[in-house]
UniProtKB/TrEMBL annotation:
Residues 120-194 form the Ig-like domain. The keyword Membrane applies. One of its GO terms (cellular component) is membrane. It comes from Gasterosteus aculeatus aculeatus (three-spined stickleback). This is Ig-like domain-containing protein.
């Protein structure tokens, strides 16, 4: 008990100048405290008198205790205070008087009583924007406390604030944090915390979306270019076709058509489809002319074998015309 009191009195935490002025002693509620007074050669004839706030709490004269309890007095005259409460705070004084009434020794001290610091708790937030993790040492009651931090069990001597900021880069590997909160009478350590922050996803997402946007834009551009290309191709093809149709009739026309058949018959067939359902066109209309020649070429055995499957769909509507008379 005495050692505990002495340890706390000797200064668990360094006192600041301001607090030194107000309190000589700090103790926790519920604690036992021995007031630090030592009178080595205590004679039985001497009078020992302890006061608290000018009220006598112990008086011993000629070896007899008239106020207080004998067991609370040590051989050197120090006084044990049991189970401290907030009312135990205040000014304590001791006087030792000689037989002839002169003062042999005195001491005065002011005692402050406070609650023990509660066990702190570490919380953290991951600030991915700044690439840091922010830890905070929480204590239930807001009271003046000193904080300290440990990283993997080692005290971070320069970190004495309630918050701690660590860059995410420093978090690689297993990192455990703990904080301690302390006041003048006690110190409590938190449980260790192993923070997990997702390794910077926002930049990745940002990059991915940018790439996606670029791909989309690029894709759209390619599609537009392709469309223009196709339109130009179609136009030039139609132009060529109409020129040819306008130009020659008969054998020469057919020969040129046959040359192109392998690659262009499909397209010609497509352009012809819409007109097939309508009434038969006059011989002057260019598509009709094209159609007529095709129907004629189909009847030729060598040509139909030469182009094979490509020609077979073409004559279908026409079979009514030329073939029925043959049956
Ligand atoms: C204070 O002293 C009393 C009696 O000496 C003892 O029962 C009690 O446990 C002590 N309290 C503390 C906190 O040490
Ligand atoms: C003694 O005085 C202090 C203030 O200085 C007060 O907090 C405490 O309650 C007082 N105690 C008694 C028993 O009067
Ligand atoms: C009182 O007694 C003490 C020791 O017992 C002595 O040193 C001191 O001189 C005395 N004073 C007077 C005035 O007699």
């Amino acid at each position: 008990m005495t050692t505990l009191g002495v340890i706390i009195l000797s200064g668990l935490i360094n006192l600041t100048a301001a607090d030194k002025d107000t309190c000589d002693l700090h103790a926790a509620v519920g604690q036992n405290l021995t007031l630090p007074f030592v009178h080595e050669v205590m004679a039985k004839s001497e009078v020992l008198r302890w006061t608290h706030n000018n009220t006598i709490i112990l008086l011993r004269q000629r070896g007899k205790v008239s106020v207080g309890r004998t067991e609370d007095i040590s051989a050197t005259g120090s006084l044990l205070l049991r189970n401290l409460g907030f009312s135990s705070a205040g000014i304590y004084q001791v006087h030792v008087l000689n037989v002839n009434g002169t003062l042999a020794k005195a001491w005065t001290g002011r005692l402050c009583v406070m609650d023990k610091v509660p066990k702190p708790q570490v919380t953290y937030t991951c600030d991915l924007k700044s690439g840091a993790i922010n830890l905070k040492c929480h204590i239930a009651k807001t009271q003046p406390s000193l904080f300290s931090w440990t990283l993997n069990g080692k005290t971070l001597s320069s970190e004495t604030k309630q918050t701690l900021s660590v860059s995410l880069a420093q978090l690689e590997g297993e990192r455990s944090f703990a904080c301690s909160a302390a006041n003048r009478v006690s110190q409590e350590k938190s449980d260790t915390v192993r923070p997990t922050c997702e390794s910077p996803p926002p930049p990745t997402i940002c990059l991915a979306s940018k790439i996606a946007a670029a791909l989309l834009a690029g894709g759209a551009g390619v599609i537009v270019v392709l469309l223009i290309f196709v339109i130009v191709l179609c136009r030039s093809h139609v132009r060529i076709k109409s020129q040819m149709q306008r130009g020659d009739e008969g054998e020469a026309r057919m020969i040129s058509l046959n040359k192109r058949e392998s690659d262009s018959i499909g397209r010609e067939y497509e352009t012809l489809i819409p007109t097939e359902d309508s009434a038969p066109r006059g011989p002057d209309s260019p598509p009709g002319a094209c159609y007529e020649t095709e129907a004629q070429t189909e009847n030729r055995p060598e040509q139909s074998t030469a182009v094979g499957g490509q020609l077979t769909p073409v004559p279908k509507p026409r079979t009514k015309g030329p073939r029925t008379p043959n049956i």
